[in-house]
Amino acid sequence: MLKRLSLSILAILCLVTATQAQKTDTLSITLENVKYGYPVKYFPIAVEGQDVRMAYMDVAPTQMANGRTVMLFHGKNFGGYYWTEVIKALTSRGFRVIVPDQIGFGKSSKPFIHYSFHQMAAWNKALLDTLGIQKASVLGHSMGGMLATRFALMYPGQTEMLLLENPIGLEDYRLFVPYVSTDQQYATELKATAESIKKYYQSSYFTVWKPEYEELVRVAAGVTNSADFPRWAKVAAMTYTMIYEQPVVHEFINVRVPTVLFIGKQDKTIVGKGLLSPDQQVLYGQYRFLGKQTAAKIPGAKIIEFDGCGHIPHVEIPTEFVVALLGSL
Q1: Which InterPro entries match (predicted)?
Q2: Tens digit of each residue's pLDDT (9 = 90 or more) over 56-103
């Protein structure tokens, strides 16, 4: 009896320890326990019979206000949390900065809806309208670059400048990446682990890995331990389908606002890269060529390139990026 009691106590202690470890590593899929650099507000949206909310930061200038606004669009695997240093730089130069987490990302709701760049652009326009902002420069990184381009195409009168930081969608992935259904992509997303995410970030995002990048992995991997992770994975699959099926590359010629591209030349990002053979992978995602090709398509566009930098210049080379960004604005 005493032996069985001791084993029971040991089992309980192991369970408590495991639960505590999970609490340490687990993040909710709306990142309630991730601290952003500035206070977060919520913009209510009704879509497909659902009431959802879009998280955003509205950061006032810390120096003499210049009356201008910059809106920051995050990439697919990120949220507003990785823009902190860019926000500081912009607000110190007099800019008001709006930083939304798109629906389906970051601290925003994760609904099962038809995800569309057109609809996202309309929601961001509605946010600006609600805040009384008539015009903004829009900086989009990675997937945010596709969204920023769509925003500029739909609302040229409200777009002061289009600023693209290593945007994806510079190629039409449908032409060379095999199609996978949303359900197939969902099965892939469910397999994500902290180890696989770190490996992907190391191989795809940065030229040299640094300890400070671990925080990006912690946030991205933390949701995999959540009981709601299947919902997160489903939404991730739905937004993968959005990227694949809704290219903007064919419409760059129609952009009619001042545009600057900021390109880390070592970037080799391909959406669906894992579906390609090594021989195919070297044929695509070459940003040292894609940046120039894209700038040539957009009337009057300028390009600033960074040597020895990968997919996220504002994280990998923050000082150089901020200098280039402020100079362009």
Answers
A1: AB_hydrolase_1, AB_hydrolase_fold, AB_hydrolase_sf, Epox_hydrolase-like
A2: 999 999 999 999 999 999 999 999 999 999 999 999 999 999 999 999
CA-nearest of 161, 116, 113, 111 to 140 is 161
What is the distance between the alpha carbons of residues 184 and 189, in angstroms, rounded to a whole number? Answer: 9
Of the chain, the percentage scoring pLDDT greater than 70 comes to: 92
DSSP 179: P
Annotate 23-54 with b (16+ C-beta within 10 A) or e (fewer): eeebbbbbbeebebbbebeebebeeeeeebbb
Q: Which of the 8 DSSP states describes residue 284?
A: S
Whole-structure pTM value: 0.92
Quick one: residue 290, left, alpha or beta (phi over 0 = left, psi -120 to 50 = alpha)? alpha
Residues 44-53 pLDDT 10s? 999 999 999 9
Q: Are 168 and 146 in contact (CB under 8 A)?
A: yes
Q: What pairs with residue 159 in β-bridges?
A: 136
Location of structure tokens 């940065």 = 206
DSSP 20: H
Total residues belonging to the chain: 329
State how far the Cα of 23 lies from the Cα of 321, in Å rounded to an integer.
36
Alpha carbons 79 and 123: distance in angstroms, whole number: 16
In terms of DSSP bridges, do strands 96-100 and 136-141 run parallel, antiparallel, or are they unpaired?
A: unpaired
* DSSP annotation of 176: T
Measured distance CA(203)–CA(273) in Å, rounded: 12
For residue 104, is it left (φ>0), alpha (ψ between -120 and 50) or beta?
A: left
Q: Which CATH class is domain 37-328?
A: alpha beta
Write the DSSP symbol of residue 27: -
Q: Beta partners for 264? A: 306
Q: Where would I find the H helices in 57-96?
A: 84-91
Give the single-character DSSP code of 101.
Answer: P
